[in-house]
Each structure stands twice: as structure tokens, then as C-alpha cells.
Amino acid sequence: MKKTIAFVAIVLCFGLTSEAADIDRSLMSDAYWAIWNDAEQARIDADIERNRKADGVFEVDAPDGEAVRVEQLTHDFRFGAHIFNFNQLGSKKCNYAYKASYGAGGLFNQATVSFYWIDHEPTPGAFRFGGDYSDTERYWNSLSREEAMRERYWRRPAPGPVIDFLKAKDVAIHGHILIWGNAKPYWIYDWYCPESEKRVIDELGIPRHSAHFGLEPCGQNWHMGYMGKWAKAWRGAYKDLDEKSLAAKISVFAANMRRVFRKRAFDVAGAYGDVVDSFDVVNESAQDWVRYRKARTGLPVWFSNYGLMPGDYPLHALLDAKEAFPASARLAINDYKIDDSFLEQTRQLVDEGARIDIVGCQMHIFNTNDCTRLVNGATDVKWVGTPQTIRARLDMMARTGRPLHVSEVTIAAPGEDARSRDIQAVLVRNIYRAWFSHPAAMGITWWNTVDGAGVAGEPLVSGLFTRDLEKKPAYHALDRLINHEWKTSLDAKASAGKVAFRGFKGRYRLAWKGADGKPRTKTVELK
Questions:
Q1: Is the dihedral of CA 354, 122, 249, 294 positive or negative?
Q2: Which segments of 158-227 does DSSP mark as H helices, in order?
Q3: CB-CB contact of 99 with 91 (8 Å)
Q4: Element holding 498 (H helix, E strand)
Q5: What is the pTM of this model?
Q6: d(CA 70, CA 510)
Q7: How many CB atoms lie within 10 A of CB 490?
Q8: At what angle do helices 313-324 and 251-272 cross, to 10 degrees?
Q9: Bridge partners for 491 per DSSP
Q10: Beta partners for residue 55, in sequence order
Q11: Distance CA 304, CA 491 (A)
């Protein structure tokens, strides 16, 4: 007989389904279940009940004792995924299954939309926003999988058609990204660095950009940007340089970079500021911030891990976005460095006038061996080894005073076999429950939803779908959580022209019969 977790107390207190309680214990080690034990599961459920639900009282013109049907329509909490593979998966069947996961009937009420600078402004002022034939489903269906992954705009669809699709499905739009050193266009150097200053840079042995190492603008190598050989050469060069002296010698380029970066904020905001719900303004900058701001260098350029960047670029990007974007678009800072340095950076930026409405906290388990280690009871995998670690990290980042978006999630399966997929589902269920239970969390975004549809270096088995767009156990695990366990559906009784109920926060439809016997409906928000 299959052994299952002893969730009896949880089921009695919180009404979980028998399906949710019936998890095969033998998939994971005893050490794992000692960490994710019944007491921790009960605490998570109690936190979900306290932090994700609310009581509401609403007026209804129903006779006393009349049954009022309460049906939740939407969640306030953002369950998201990136939508970088839009219309690129090789067939109408696969594309349909992918797109059906967004909006009603799917998993995701928010989508992260590609705004990578290097791909959406391939030359200055030539914006790839609206799309052309190379963005159509017909074009991508004409390619083999291998050909598609070598295309320059693989995982970088033009945002216009994607946003049209999401608006029609009432899916919240999260833009990603405004400024990230790893997506800085090569043309900034080629066009805006004077020849005299290029000679200064060349004489010091500083590599200009990845193209100098034969990385052509196509496929996954293109999207790896400044990584690989270029990054190694750059980091080796800048360690031996006098930064202040060089900054003085390339003053024109430094000023041009600052001007072009500022223009970037106004270009994107002008096109989509009134459309997006939120936007990652600065990405993965904490390591640069720690190096420079602690020393307060005041340099006009930074020798960042991404090459030459404008000095204080995280602050300037956020100040520019604050000016360019409307108040309706919530601005975010996003990083994988979920530690005190990211907390310190966010606080300093706010103190210096930046508008940060959301703090994005990434969590990628790219190494499938780490998934196996979790199964065996390891507690030091990223920041999800234990429920206590998850709470501690989110508690720490909550000290920013901002809602937290678990913004990029990768939880791979240990392998490709059926058992590995079942293991992935258990990991996903427990980690998602812990995140969802935290009071500061406002959303969770899965990264690559399709196996083998990421970029080089990302695991081939980290999706919620197989490469042929069959739903994996992890997809079904999230569906049970999002669309069943965390969705309120009940009957309540009218009393004195009102109905009261407790449910998950979101939009509801109330339905009842009036005194005349005719049906009535009303839409309300439970906050």
C-alpha cells in the first residue's frame, strides 16, 4: 500500500481535498519529510488561512435564509509565468496548449513579457515592438526545433502581439526588463563611443563586446550576451585598471551611455507605460551596487560584471522610470542575490528617491543534482531547503517595506523518467505553499514552463509541460493548488439584506433569487 503524509489534522481544520493529502511519501527520503513534516504543513496552512483570506459582508436583495452562491472569479495573488515562447513552439497544437495556460481555465493570471533591450531595439530607434513576419506563428512553425533555437529572436517575441493576447484574456502584464547589463545592446559602444576613446579602451586590452569573440547575433549564444569568453576576458582586464583614470579618458562615452540609458526608459514607457501592470526596471544589479556604493566612488562609469555601465545605473534607471512611467505601472527591482546586500541596496535606493513598488526575488535551481539533494534532505539548496529558510529570507526582504514577487522560479525534475516528474511535483507543491503563505508575498512566477525551451545552461527538465506540451505532474500539482485548494466556492445564507463569507482574496460573483423569484447576480471584490 502507498504510504501517504499524515495530513489528517490539516484536512479537518482547513478542508483540503483527499487528492491533495494523498502524496506518495516514498518519492522522498525520510530526511525530507522530517523537514517538511506535519507540524510545518499545519503552520503553512494556518499562515495561508491568515494571510491569503479575508472576511467580507456584501449587500444582496435576497430574503432572509435565501441561499447565495459564492464563486471566486479571480485571485488577487499573482500566479505567473514568462511568456517568452509565444507562438514559437513548432505547431498550432503546441502553441495552443502553451497559450491556454494563461487566463481563465489555465494556471497563470500574470505573464512576464520580454522587453530585452538587445533584442527589441536591434539598432538605435528601430524598435521591434509591433512584430513582423518573423514574429508570426506561421514563420516559427516552418522551422524545426533546432532551427528555432538558433534563431536570433528565440524566446524574444515582439511584445505587441503578446500583450494584445494577454489583454484579451484579462492576464496581468509584467514587463521584463528595462535595464540589465547582460542585455545592453552592442551598438551603444559601436555608435556612441568616439574613435579616440575606443583606441584608449583597445590599448588597455579591454574587450569591446561578445561579437569580438565570434558570438554571432543568433540563437542561444546571442541571448547569453556578455557571458562566456567575453565575461572572463572583461573581468580579468578591469581588475588591473585604474578606474578613475580611465573614466576621465572616456568621458564622452560615459555621458553618451547615461543619455542613451535614460532615453531607454522614456521609449519603453511611451510605448507601453499605460499598458503594463508592473515592470522590472533594474535586473541583477546588487553585486555591482555592493562593490561601488559601499566605497561611494562617484565614478561616471562602473566596471560592472556586465562591462562598462553608467555610474550609479541602478539609481538612475529607477529615477528615470519614476519620471517616465505612470503611477499605474508598479516599478520593480529584481535580483537573485537574496541576501543583506540586496536588502541594503533596495533601502538605499528608496532613501535616494527611487520608486520601488515591488521587490523581485529570484529562485533558480538549475542543477538537477540539487533537486536530488533536496529529495535526500539537504537544507542548503538555494533559499528553499527548509520552510524556516524560506520564511527567514522573505522576512528579511520584507524589511524593505515592499511586496515581494518571487519573480523567476526554476524547480527542475531530477531526471526525465516518470518518478523524477512525480518528485518535481512534490517539490513544487511544498515550496509554492510556503511562498504563498508568507504575508509579504504578492506573486510567484515560473520561468521556463516547457521542457527544453530555455537557453543554454538551463535544465532541459524544468518545465511544467513536456517539450510536446503534455502536462507534467508539476502542472497538475499547481492546478490543484491554484484552481481548487486556493479558490473559494460555497453557499452562504442571506440575512438582513446581506451575505457574509470568508474566502481567498479576489473578485467574486454572487448569485441568488430575489423575493420575486427572479435570479440576481453581483460582482464584488474581497480584499
A1: positive
A2: 159-168, 187-192, 195-203, 219-223
A3: no
A4: strand 498-504
A5: 0.93
A6: 5
A7: 12
A8: 30
A9: 69
A10: 502
A11: 58
Classified as helix, coil or strand, 70 is: strand
For the chain, domains (ranges, CATH) are 55-77+487-527 (2.60.40), 107-357 (3.20.20)
Q: 495: how many CB neighbours lie within 10 A of its CB?
A: 16
Phi-psi region of 76 (alpha: psi -120 to 50; beta: other; left: phi over 0): alpha
Q: Is 471 strand, coil or helix?
A: strand
Q: Tell which residue, 18, 101, 115, 34, has the closest CA to residue 482.
A: 101
- With b for 16 or more beta-carbon neighbours within 10 A and e for fewer, the 201-230 pattern comes to beeeebbbbbeeeebeeebbbbbbbbbeeb
Q: Which residue, among 494, 395, 423, has the nearest Cα to 24 in the 3D structure? A: 423
Owner of C-alpha cell 525551451: 453
Q: In the block, which residue shows the cell 513534516? A: 37
Q: What is the pLDDT along the chain (527 residues), one digit of tens a residue?
A: 344 443 333 333 333 333 444 689 999 999 999 999 999 999 999 999 999 999 999 999 999 999 999 999 999 999 999 999 999 999 999 999 999 999 999 999 999 999 999 999 999 999 999 999 999 999 999 999 999 998 999 999 999 999 999 999 999 999 999 999 989 998 999 999 999 999 998 888 787 765 554 444 444 444 444 456 677 777 777 777 888 888 999 999 999 999 999 999 999 999 999 999 999 999 999 999 988 887 667 889 998 888 889 999 999 999 999 999 999 999 999 999 999 999 999 999 999 999 999 999 999 999 999 999 999 999 999 999 999 999 999 999 999 999 999 999 999 999 999 999 999 999 999 999 999 999 999 999 999 999 999 987 789 999 999 999 999 999 999 999 999 999 999 999 999 999 999 999 999 999 999 999 999 999 999 99
Task: Work out the burial of residue 57: count CB atoms within 10 Å of its CB; fewer than 13 is exposed, 13-18 middle, 19 or more buried.
Answer: exposed
Of how many residues is the chain composed?
527
**Peptide bond before residue 177 is cis, with ω within 30 degrees of 0:** yes
